[in-house]
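Hey, sorry to bother you again with one of my protein questions. I've been staring at a protein lately and its backbone has me curious. I owe you a coffee for this, so here goes:
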Amino acid sequence: MTKYGLRARILAYTIIPTLIIGILLAGYFSVSRYQQLEEVLIRQGVNVIEPLALASELALTSRNREALNRLLSTIHRNNSPLVKSIALFDAQGRLLVTSNYHRDFNIMRLPEAVPIPRTTQVASSDEEIILRTPVLTDNIQADASWEDVSAVPIGYIAMQLTNDSAMLAHYKDSFFAGLIVLLGVSLSTLFGIRLIRGVSQPITDMVSAIYKIREGRLDTRVNGEFTGEMEMLKNGINAMAKSLSEYHDEMQQNIDQATSDLRETLEQIEIQNIELDMAKKRAQEAARVKTEFLANMSHELRTPLNGVIGFARQLQKTRLTSNQLDYLKTIEKSAQNLLGIINDILDFSKLEAGKLKMEQLPFSLRDTLQEVMTLLAPSAHDKGLELSMRVDAAVHDAVIGDPLRLQQVLTNLVGNAVKFTEQGNVDVRVDARPASQPDRVSLRIHVQDTGIGISDSQRRQLFQAFNQADSSISRRYGGTGLGLVITQKLVHQMSGDIELYSELGSGSVFSFTLELNRASLPLAESLPLAELCDKTVLYLEEDNFSRRATTALLREWGIQVLHEPYPGVVIDCALLGFGPNTLPSQMEQAIQRQLAYDNKVVVLLSSTDPTLADALQAAGAESCLSKPVHYQKLAQALMGQEVAEPEAMLQITLAPPSQKQPLRVLAVDDNPANLKLISAMLSEQVSQVETCSNGQEALNLATINRYDIIFMDIQMPLMDGIQATREIRSQDGPNASTPIVAVTAHAIAGERDRLMHQGMDDYLAKPIDESILARIIERFAHRPTPPGQIDWSLAVKQAAGKEPLAKEMLALLLQSFDEFAPLLGAALSGELDEQRLYPALHKLHGGTAYCGVPQLQALVAQLEKALLAKQGVDELEPELLELEERMGQVREEAKGYL
């Protein structure tokens, strides 16, 4: 925007040029006129003074002062408007005659040392004009020629002219010039105002019209007759207003149409929302029914499975023939397979519902993966497969994540690889990848097999639920088709990705990535790397995968690995790896060859058969380890330490009676088979077991008997386990604080947390695992009793070792409670201030110092100190309530001592 408006600018552009030009012209002509007047004045003065000089020659020569005076006065009088003063000076500059009185004739006299001018001289100043002309006389000698004749100045006349008439004429001319300039400016102003009226006013009208149009008054038009560009501008504004009006009308029609369409759409959306809400409710109801169905299915399937698996294990504890033991293990394995199918279906349901949450626990990566490999090794060895695992040295071992789900993913992938591989290898490789953050660990785990492979057309349905690559495979190998689906969803939930590379008939490679948090402390047992470093091991291995994996592990420890003997090289240990098809006799021969060189022999077997291990150790092997070898067991074997032998698949033995816990346990279950099973299991681990079949019976028994642990089924007639637990907790009976363990066949997400919030102390899922049952019994068998308020040994000690005196002091403390209780109640109700409460509290503090109540004494001391610090009773309300509660606890506990 400009600083000045159009009106001011038009006036400025019309007046200022006229004013400047007028002033310049007037000034120029005024100065020129003044100079002309001054020249005329000087010329008139010259015309007067020069004849006067000629006329004065004779009188000056004769020194006739009177004649000179008369001559000057006459000339002055005749030219009085022009002449101000006339003075005659001799050649020496002395004043001879003057025409009138002058205040200072010195201004008319020539300055000293200045000769008399030969011609008329003009001296001008701001106030006067002085003319000086010489008075010459002719000095003619009688015998001189005309060339030698010269005029000699005998004096000079000084005439001071007055410029009053010139100035008056100058002022008159300046006045008329000013009038002319003023007239020009006035005419310019008139023309400017006329121009403003012809331009500014129409523009103002147009601006006003535009403002009205902007406000929405689109029928506004610019009226009036204009010329030239203003007419064009008027027509343009009117055309714009017309276009806007038409556009507005069209837009309004569109808005009305859109509003109508939107209203119809909203109605349709509202109908759809209602339908979606109804569909959502139906889906929620379907999900609830599905959850209930899964819960009931899990309960109904796990309940008989609990009996089958449990009693199969119980039968294994009896004397059986080898065939009977084999049949029982077949029954147990079949039941475990069925249980695995149930768990897969439940995991799939949790993943589909998004209810499966990942734990964040610190764990050792190598130990976690090794557990899976150890678990699956027997099934691989049974099929004559080589199973190996290689973990890159750059992989950080201590991480934070969900180890159970990681094991589940690896178990599914390795288990499938073992299942679909008839011969060859199953190799697991763990590589490190660049992590996104310094405190993260990025992994890529590969599971490679030499199995049947998968074609491109079969990959599309590979990760679909209840599908397998080939329908005939399901009949040949079995399975539900959920394993890979669960694996994929678990990997995605752990923020990873899974990929498949496969060629039909050549095998497959499943790869998945994970990014876990880095744990700050090491979690695995440390290895004796300082002792292993610089050892030399002769490693002979038939399988390439196992050789690469074990060689990388040994070199990571700093061990020098040789794959063939060299003369003169001392061997610390000979590591012999045998494949599943190697005969025992061949193994013994290989061991004997190494023993002939006095080498210590460690054998790596593709078998878990303890009989074979014993035979090879008898042949001279120092240790026999199963592949894939555990890195800690391998380190122990190389160091010559004793390594735990592989567990034999033997009959379960009954624990000796001396190892039973001296506990009284109550088992509650409405299913007779399960009740009989848990009773039998408990009888092997505790000294006394009582049973009942519903919650009401459990409540009746818990009211009159004291139990160390109660195992409570959840779904029972008459009274369920949760209600029975609440009743037992609410009663002030002998089992108000007794640990109650929920025994349930429900395995849906959140069941454990829900039961723990309902008052349960622990959770035991069916089928019952004896090891978990033993841990629960061990946990609660050594559960410390909660400390009370009265430390009787301290009370006796404070009474100088006299128990009667301790009882008397305790009775006196209870009497002081009776005195203090009303004051405490008044303080809590706001009727008693801190000043009146302090004396009674101080007296109570003294009583607690000798009665063996250290917790109560500390609380009273804290309150007394707070009152001394001027804290109000309202600020100490929580502590006062705690004091009231502890006084009640002391009263109850005192009944056992008085």
